[in-house]
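Tutorial, part two.
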Amino acid sequence: GAQVVRGAREIEQAADREQRIVRRNPGHVGARGHVPLLPLASAPQLLHLIDLESWRRDEFDPERSGAWIAMLLEAGEEVLQRFLRDADDDLLVLLFQKWARVRQIEIDDTPDRAGHGETEAGTELGFLSPDGYHRFSPLIPEHGPAIRRLAEVFAATWPERCRRVVWSAVSEPSAEVEEQALRWRQSRLEE
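Running the prediction step on this input gives:
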């Protein structure tokens, strides 16, 4: 409860201080300087941090959220796993919809004999998901390796949940998912 909020607020306040420094000195390390602190955060603290950093008022910010997910990965897979364990599915669906921009590979994309012809390296359309049935076309191409690793860790640790989240990301209307994720976020922040 209060300890989680206090810890997440400390991380957030440190990030705010860094943002002010970055504005005055663009060469400064910025939020990346907090990567060493992330392994010390509990799962609820990580989720609280993502809740605070991923939304601008009532709108999900996929670029900012994705950058924080990439930093969680930079801090170590166990940090990402802690976050994934506590994150609600709607938040993860939003990440896959708006940041990773996951799409199902259509039948028309697959030649009759040799499959779809895509490899893990990808094409100009994006790159394959771990299950081989979906394609990621990252909002920010440089986040491609983080998206790939997020999907690999998620699929290896919670395969059924990952399939469910990816299916929802492909099939559910983004506006409805965002509205539900916002409700979950608001209820967490009220606690």
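Strands lie at 55-56, 59-60, 102-104, 127-128, 134-136. In part three we will examine how such features are distributed along the chain.
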